[in-house]
Structures are given as C-alpha cells and as structure tokens.
Design goal:
CATH architecture of chain A: Roll
Radius of gyration of chain A: 16 Å
Oligomer: homotetramer
Number of strands of chain A: 5
Distance between the termini of chain A: 6 Å
Structural class of chain A: alpha+beta
Strand content of chain A: 25-35%
Chain lengths: 135, 135, 135, 135
C-alpha cells in the first residue's frame, strides 16, 4: 500500500454561503494530493504530460461526513491499495486534526495527447510496484 | 419519477490544460441542475434557506465517459426515482446532443442553520410526491 | 460603440462565507459576457482559437459597489468604445435590475499558439469596425 | 511599508485550455497572500470575522505580464505602503523565480455583519501602524 499526506488550508474563495467549504473543492483537493503523491514517488505529473501521457479522472466518489470551514488546516491522505494496471485506483481521506471530514476515491487511466487510451509508461507502473512492496 | 433538464454552456474558466472541462465542474453543474429542478417543482432553494433549511451534499459519485470542451452546449438531466424521506437521492446525466458525457448521483439531507439534521419541510416532501405521481 | 448584454444567474458555488458572490467570479462573468459579445458580432471565440488566435487578458480592473447574492439574476453589459487595434479594450457593468453592482474593464491582445503577439485577424477588426459604425 | 511573501503552487484545476493559469485565479491568490500577511501581523482574518468585522474587496486591478503554468511555484508578494484608514490599499506582485508575472492591487473597507461600513477595529490599525514603523 502507498500512503501519502498533503496539507491544505481552506481558502476564502472555496467557502460558500452555508459557511462551509463548497463540496466541489474536494475533487480539486484530491487532485492536489494525488499530484503530491506522485511527487513523493519521484514521478512528476508535469513531466508525464510533457512525455505525452495524460491521466484524466474516469470516475470519482465522495462521502461528506463533516463540513470544513474557512482557514481550516486539512490533511488529505492518499492511498493506493491495488496494483495499478490499465486503471489506477486511489482512495482519499480528508481530516481536520483527528476528525474525518470526507472519504473518497478516484479512478484513472492513461490517455495520449489525442485522447486515445494507452498503456501506462512502464517506469510509472514499476515505481508504483516498488513503492507498494517497500511499505 | 421526476425528470428535468437544464442547459449549460462550458465556460472558458472551466477548462483545464488538457483542453477538457475540468472534472470538478460537473459537481457545480449538478448543483445548478438540482436548483433548476427545484424551480420547476415551484420550490425555490433560496427560499428554503431563508426558511432555515439547508440541503448540503452528503455524498456524490461521478462517472466520466467523454470529455466536454469549451463552448459546448450541454444538457444536464436530473432524475428523482426514489420518494424522498430523510434523504433525497438525485441522479444526473450530462449530454452533448445525443452523446452521454457523464453520469452521476448526489445524496442530500436537510439541516438547520446550526448544522443539525432536521426533517424535511412537509410541503417540500409533498411537492416531490405530487410530482412523482404526475409523471 | 458596441453594447451587448448577457444574463447570468449566481451559482451556489460562486458564493462565499460572507454570503456574497465571491469577487473573483466577476472576472469569469466578464469573460462569459465577452464571448457572448463576440457571438453577437458573429465571431466565435472557439473558431478563433481553432484558427490559431488566442485572446488572453493583459489587464483588468474592477470596482465593486454592491454585493451580488446566490440566485440573483444579473445582467452583464459589455461595451467597446475604442476602435480595436493591437489592443482591444472592453468595459463592463454588472447590474441586478436597475442596481449597478460592479463596473470593470479588460484589455486584450491577440497571441499565436506559441504565445507570440500577433496582429489581430483582419476580419475580426473589420467586424468590430462595422459594428461600431452601425451603432 | 509592510512586505510579506506567500508561496503557492499552481493547481491543475486552475489552468485553462490555453495551458495558462486562468486569469481569475490571481484574485484568489491575492486573497490568500493577504490572509497570510494578516497572519504575519498576528491578525487572524477568521478571528476578525468572528468579532463581526468583514473586509470585502471594493476594487481590484491586475496587470498580466507573463503566463503562469501548471505546477509553477509562485511567490505572491504583498505590500502595504499607505497607512490604513477607512480604506486599506494592498499591492501585489506574482513572481516565478525572478520573473514578474503579474502586478495588482486591491482596496478594502471594513463592514459589519449586516453589511454596513464600520470603522476598522483599533487594534487592527495599531498593528498595521506598528508594523509600518518597524520596517
């Protein structure tokens, strides 16, 4: 299993008239955490795109348990529990201190610049597998 | 079953560097379509909030099938298939002409201004039930 | 002078914890109104990009007079008062009924796909000039 | 003069189809930098709101010089050059390393919870004045 942590601070522009962080932002926070997970694995998503590989979101689910508020410092935990193949599954938890605010998941597949599904680059898969063995 | 349609046009600021509408926007489009569905049922979400009822999102899921692009005219279809009780379930389809781009669902419950779960206002439930019978 | 009008409805996700439409959204509403102004001139910004012309924002200013709220129906008025040359200047007013909420302006220049400044396409300038004469 | 620095990393969701960070995000980055400037002055904007003081944006201007891209690490510099009175003026610079990408300014005034203009809290003004003398 791969497990990484990212911290974010809720921006004022991310709140809504309920006084909560608007629910759509969690998908952006997942994305941020996902990119920092790749960083920790020494994979740069920016470099992947330069190499012609794009990793769009095929599916996502979110379960909101408690609201987040302006200025909250949140931890977004990313988990990869299944060996990546054509598809990559990532799970997320958003916490304020010990309080679990949201859980979620995203599913991804690599596509080429022209939008065609492609096999993931070998070094990416190998990096994931190495990281999963080391845990 | 309740079924309503909303049309949106993809804004430039909603696109991302892949050239696609960024995946987080779909949750905002669902929200927009949900509010227009309430409108069609003669329920104003703004009035509900004035009356002290808030309808946050408890859960959401999205399945992205094809990308949307800048300037696309999209139809967001809202479905309510189950009679609403303490929880309200809504399903969504996002289409460009006949092409299905995304399906999704959200789950909601009413809370009061201080964040406590409350029973939905009777006239709201009745309006939903009436609309479901008429279909 | 060119003058066009666009109507928007404030989305829930555009509000912030003050209960106002967050001030950054006005730039997106200006953009929306600008693209609809081009539409009215029979110029499609999407087509311009396909032809290799991009029209980024070089500068913007905004003066906020009254807040906008969730669900407000707003009119965004676009004005072009100066003949476009290498630069295009656009002015904006955002109104709720007769109440002026915000005024602003943006400045633009055409660039090519590789980011180099280019002369605006002749038919674009001609279309602007024709529209300005007709008013 | 007060001068503080904030670092941000451009999020994928902040990019647009030109491949640039969308221009509306700079207002959110200014906001973020402003809140961190208040932090450095030991003023918490969150506490100010709890005390019933809100600091909306009355005006803003932005001059975009170079685009920012996904994953760029940017420095947002905040300047306060004029002693704050009923209005507070803040200037901004956004840089990628030594390259100036954007300059801008915002103007603010305090309002109460019901939207009425109010004199700024004395300790806020004193904190600004103290910080300006120390520089």
């Amino acid at each position: 299993m791969i497990r990484t942590e990212t911290t974010i601070r809720v921006r004022y522009g991310e709140t809504d008239a309920m006084g909560f962080a608007h629910h759509a932002n969690y998908l952006s926070w997942f994305e941020l955490a996902r990119i920092e997970m790749l960083d920790e694995l020494t994979l740069s998503y920016k470099e992947l795109e330069k190499d012609g590989y794009f990793l769009p979101v095929l599916g996502a689910s979110l379960s909101y348990k408690q609201p987040a508020y302006f200025d909250d410092r949140l931890t977004v935990v990313c988990y990869v529990r299944e060996k990546p193949g054509l598809r990559i599954h990532i799970n997320y938890e958003v916490l304020r201190n010990e309080t679990l605010l949201c859980t979620g998941s995203t599913e991804h597949a690599f596509i080429s610049k022209d939008g065609q599904p492609v096999r993931p680059p070998k070094h990416v898969i190998q990096t994931f597998l190495d990281a999963m063995e080391n845990e």
